[in-house]
Amino acid sequence: MSTPLGQFPSTRLRRNRVDGWTRRLVAENALTVSDLIWPIFVMEGQNAESTVPSMPGVRRVTVDRIAGHVEHAVKLGIPALALFPMTPVAKKDAEGTEAKNPENLICRAARLLKREFPDLGLIGDVALDPYTDHGHDGVIRDGYVANDETLEILTVQALVQAEAGIDVIAPSDMMDGRVGAIRTALDAKGLIHTRIMSYAAKYASAFYGPFRDALGAGKTLRGDKKTYQMDPANSDEALREVAMDLAEGADMVMVKPGMPYLDIVRRVHERFGVPTFAYQVSGEYAMIAGAADHGWLDRERAVLESLIAFKRAGAAGVLTYFAVEAAEVLRRA
Ligand code: PBG
Questions:
Q1: Mean pLDDT for the chain?
Q2: Annotated catalytic, 92?
């Protein structure tokens, strides 16, 4: 088929795609190492590590191995880590008491990491699920996760973490009022520089499955988290959650999971113009890593494409288990 004379398209969007340098020049977004936050798993014991079957390539390490585990990430320039504990069953109880222990895994890891890498940002998850024997993020009273009683424990958990060197408290529990309660508690102790990155819009998601395996919390969880985490059907409600957390003093907000919720990232960033982060969660990691292991996806390309999509949606950064390999690619480029 030939184009009739005079009917040539005067605008050809393909012109700006014709070679690599033009494509680079007109690119609207860029992913850099500074956009990456790497979640890591810490476990009890000595000089040991273990693998997470549902997250191929992800390891848990003992505290004494942490420095070696993260050194490469620090050298690559990854700005911050998010720390998660695999608490032994013997230390779990109905009230999540271990969360308040200044010698718990997270606090020990934080002290060591601050000493070894003073310029590395440390993000501490605040919620009780790694520490409760029922697997819920708060304490249960009459079959319901009790909001206000849980807040009292979360504030202590946040304090012991901040005192151990955690720079950013990241409440992931979805209790109402947690950001305000934690901010008040931190300020009362003079911890005015400790930031709060709230998991503001956190959905009750099937995509957390592999993470619960990593923490050993999957089998223990009784029921689901639908009475506190958000309904995936909702979007306006996410804006209310974010507004509330900001009013209570959140410095940064997060949307979680990531890829299926890019519309939420976009709306939050557009509406509030605050640092908005996205968490590419364990199930998203498992999907890409699993498909790549089968040869069904090109791992490197799928990872980079998924990450630039977060930037395009308006994210300031991404928590991703791919952080180190993405940083390696970006450094190579
Ligand atoms: C704890 C918490 C969860 C995740 C981060 N913090 C699990 C949950 O809420 O059940 C999930 C992270 C991931 O899946 O990678 N409240």
A1: 96
A2: no
